[in-house]
Amino acid sequence: GRLQEDNNVSWRGDSCLEDGSSLSEDLSDGYYDAGDAIKFNFPQSFAMTLLSWSVVEYNAKYEASGELNHVKETIKWGTDYLLKTFNNSAHTIDRVVTQ
Question: With the C-alpha atoms ordered 19, 21, 23, 26, is the resulting torsion angle positive or negative?
Answer without folding.
Answer: positive
